[in-house]
Amino acid sequence: MNKYGKITYSIAALALLAGAVATLAMPDEAAAKWLGFTQRYGQRLEAVAHAEPAPAPVRAAVETESDEAVATVEVGGEAAVTGPDGKTARVIVEDAADDTKVIKIDEGEAGKLQATADEGRQSWLLDPVQVVKRSAADYGFSAERDTFTLVSQLYKGARSGTGEAQVLVGHDSRFFLVKLIQPAGPGTHNIWQVAAVRQVRAVVRDEKPDVGPGVAGLDYAKIIKWQQAVDAGRDQWRLDPLEVAKREGKSYYGFGDDDTFTVVNRRSATPLARHGQVDVAVKHGDKVYKMIVVRPFGGGGAIWTTYRVDGPVTAPVPQPPAGKVIFRTDEYKGWNWYKGAYPGDMAMAVITDYAQAGKDGRIPEAVLARAKAVDYDEKVVLFAYLGSGGGADAIGIEKVTLTGNALTVTVRTRSVKPGEMETRNLTAPSDYVAIDRKYVDVWGGVNVTFVDQRGNELAKTKVSINHNPHNR
């Protein structure tokens, strides 16, 4: 399943990252000038950065022409920036300058730097903030006096197709967004290089952003790192409170794969956790425990973590949820079938062994060949064949749901609307999804049902994995 859609650069969604930025050591006099901070730290601060020209860069490879494909900066977002006094301020981006300083990356030099990082040297090249600080003088910044805050980091940008990061630089009373990319491609082991610099106009307020501590007693230094990993596209399971309970329960509290985890209560705010709390009942042997899972931060994309485990308790455990969605896509959203009956040669199949697939002749071998390259030692293929159709006919698998030992495959079909023209070309529309073999490799087998978007049953079969090599 493709989990990466079109990603926009939104500073607001990543304000959580700034809490992990180390406080810069500065003299008191310089600290008082930083971003308009006064020595009276309790006073409300609202200093608008001046729209002065960007600092003159030293590097000759910098151009002043705008390049939207390289540096597109969205305004209206905000970041949480830690000042030299240890206080956190909200920096609200209101506008961006028209010109972007585009930095031409020397591929040969970038290759040499990547080789250096691959050898385990100059590891700072793997950190976008450190890359900007180390090259601060090239762009008129000061590594000693300015602030450098990571506001976004993705390992596959929507435009560049590679890693992208943005660092907000506070220079005197002005702000700049520095964009970086990974010349060698996306990945945690590939270096970062500055690609563009753009000045932004911003408002600074000393109001505390909604980043916590939202739950007393949690280790926020550790939690911020977990949030950063999720914001960078990793460890997405931390966005699901039930999955957090299962993984952290096994890692820290002695629960196991044979235990049952069930959500019994979910609230958007509680006296303990103002950003959300989920209570999970854990059936461990003949005892039942309650895990309290909380949301340490507010806003979209915030993670969950375990606060504590109570028990054992005697409260009954509700039945598990109706089903677990193991695959979903919106690619076929809006498709509808207008022709009434489906083609007579329509067929569905569950393929556990490609060598045995298609022997009943229901699906042509040329159509099944789409799934030939799948690793059937690890995967099982759910195949949907619409049959002989017109040029506009199509079929796609949009959801796979597992409920106990039952697997429901929802397909969506498409045809032309009544009165619309259709080509006479005959097609053989089909689609398939490869799922992990573990979902059907269970005792007693799995009942698989194919249904269309209206819930009409299209096919039903039972799948049992045979582990005896002599009976295949």
- Report the radius of gyration as a whole number of Å: 28 Å
Shape: globular
Report how far apart the termini are. Answer: 30 Å
Helix content: 10-25%
Give, in order, the helices and strands: HEEEEEHHEEEEHHEEEEEEHEEEEEE
For the record, the count of structural domains works out to 3
Instruction: Output mean pLDDT.
Output: 75
Which structural class do the helices and strands define?
mainly beta
Question: Which regions have little confidence, pLDDT < 50, spanning 5+ residues?
Answer: 1-74, 207-213, 315-321, 468-472
**Total strands:** 21
Strand content: 25-35%
Biggest β-sheet, characterized?
A: 9 strands, antiparallel
Number of helices: 6
What does this structure look like?
Keywords: Signal. Residues 1-25 form the signal peptide. This protein is mostly beta strands and 472 residues long. The chain has three domains: 12-205, no CATH class; 220-313, no CATH class; 324-471, no CATH class. The chain contains six helices and 21 strands. It has helices at 28-33, 107-118, 128-134, 220-231, 241-252, 365-368, and strands at residues 46-48, 62-63, 78-82, 88-96, 101-103, 147-154, 164-171, 174-181, 193-205, 260-267, 277-284, 287-294, 305-313, 324-328, 347-351, 379-385, 394-403, 406-414, 430-436, 446-451, 457-463. The strands form four sheets. Strands 1, 2, 3, 4, 5, 6, 7, 8 and 9 form a nine-stranded antiparallel beta sheet that branches. It has a five-stranded mixed beta sheet with strand order 14-17-18-20-21, with no helix packed on it. Strand 11 and strand 12 form a beta hairpin. The longest helix is centred in the first third of the chain and has 12 residues, at 107-118. The protein is globular, with a radius of gyration of 28 Å. It starts with 27 loop residues before the first helix and ends in a 9-residue tail after the last strand. Residues 1-74, 207-213, 315-321 and 468-472 have low confidence and may be disordered.
